[in-house]
Amino acid sequence: MKVLIPGALRSYTDSAQAEADGATLAEVVTALDLQYPGIAFRMVDEQGRIRRHIRFFVDGQPVHDLGRPADPQGELVIVQALSGG
């Protein structure tokens, strides 16, 4: 699966794009973490939920469940939401 990496996480990948395989999005995130140690913690909390400031889009559709099947030919876009006051 093609994965587009937001600027805030590129310190892990040194690239705007990565490839990762898995049957589900959770497995894709795990595969990314094997390639780029520590990146998963920035996206997924200790309970296995997508962190509130991270958004996942698969083939242009928002995804809230890491159990969603992953298409090897698909595209995962990771977006880091901005917050502040």
Summarize the structure in short:
The protein is α+β, with helices and mostly antiparallel strands. 24% of the residues lie in helices and 24% in strands. Strands 2-1-5-3-4 form a 5-stranded mixed beta sheet, with no helix packed on it.
Most strands sheet: 5 strands, mixed
Our count of domains comes out at 1
CATH class: Alpha Beta
CATH level-four homologous superfamily name: Beta-grasp domain
Helix content: 10-25%
Strand portion? 15-25%
As residue ranges, the low-confidence spans are none
Number of strands: 5
Name of the CATH architecture: Roll
Instruction: For the largest sheet, list the strands in their spatial order.
Output: 2-1-5-3-4
Pfam family, one: ThiS
Protein name: ThiamineS protein
List the helices and strands and how they pair.
Elements: E1 2-4, H1 10-13, E2 17-19, H2 25-35, H3 39-43, E3 54-58, E4 61-63, E5 75-80
Parallel strand pairs: 1-5
Antiparallel strand pairs: 1-2, 3-4, 3-5
Describe the protein's architecture and organization.
The protein has 85 residues and is α+β, with helices and mostly antiparallel strands. The chain has a single domain, classed as Beta-grasp domain (Ubiquitin-like (UB roll)). It has a 5-stranded mixed β-sheet with strand order 2-1-5-3-4, with no helix packed on it. The radius of gyration is 12 Å and the shape is globular. 21% of the residues are buried. The model has no long low-confidence stretch (mean pLDDT 94).
